[in-house]
Specification:
The structure holds 2 protein chains of 2 kinds. Chain A is an all-alpha fold. Chain A has helices at about 10-15, 20-30, 35-40, 45-60, 75-90, 95-100, 110-140. Chain A is globular, with a radius of gyration of 19 Å. By secondary structure, chain B is mainly α. The N and C termini of chain B lie far apart (about 35 Å). Chain B has one domain (about 5-60).
């Protein structure tokens, strides 16, 4: 009779890292793109992420992209505006600074403004990737090299 | 206002995305660079392929 396979505990290493140490790089990465990696002493990665994500966000602003605001109407609009709003929020302080300084853009005709809106959203989505990466490194799931 | 063309926007998007995907997608610096270049090249290939497909589709 074949031996019963022993289940592998994959998250043992992760559980050894305190929750605060796992989550603080994520919060920092959310607030300032690249800050999570900087906290983890990955300075070059942090600089590259900062320049890239802030660059994408600023390119979107230069193209007069619009910030999403949550809106409840039909299903498509609701999903799109809430999704866009969450992605905008994921740029962290960039979003709060921009909105706090009074940046507001109406929906304008022309493709360039729409590209700008998408660039701002994608900056937030790329920052989510950076946050996930910071979490994986902090929790020991991924090697920091 | 910054008024890039559609192609310039697509290339900028490909560049930014590839850099971030390269940094977070692999574990060693050598792999990061090669994965970033790989993503960028595939983005460009997709841009040109879909661009031509749409042009040919429109007639």
């Amino acid at each position: 009779m074949a031996a019963k396979p022993v289940p592998v505990k994959r998250d043992v290493k992760e559980q050894q890292v305190p929750l605060f140490d796992r989550l603080s790089p994520v919060v920092l990465a959310w607030l300032i793109p690249g800050a999570g990696h900087y906290y983890l002493k990955l300075r070059v990665h942090a600089a590259v992420l900062l320049v890239t994500i802030v660059g994408m966000f600023l390119t979107g602003i230069l193209m007069q992209g619009r910030m999403f605001e949550p809106s409840n109407s039909d299903l498509f609009t609701t999903v799109m505006t809430y999704g866009g709003y969450v992605a905008d929020l994921c740029t962290g302080l960039l979003y709060f600074l921009t909105v706090g300084l009074g940046y507001y853009q109406e929906t304008l005709p022309g493709a360039v403004h729409d590209y700008g809106t998408k660039f701002i959203v994608c900056a937030g989505l790329l920052n989510i990737l950076a946050m996930v990466d910071a979490y994986e490194i902090a929790s020991g799931r991924k090697a920091a090299a | 206002m910054f008024q890039p063309s559609h192609l310039q926007v697509a290339i900028l998007f490909a560049l930014f995305s590839s850099v971030v995907m390269g940094v977070v997608g692999r574990s060693t610096n050598r792999d990061r660079v090669s994965y970033g270049i790989y993503c960028f090249v595939y983005f460009l290939a997709a841009i040109f392929a879909l661009g031509w497909l749409m042009r040919l589709g429109h007639g």
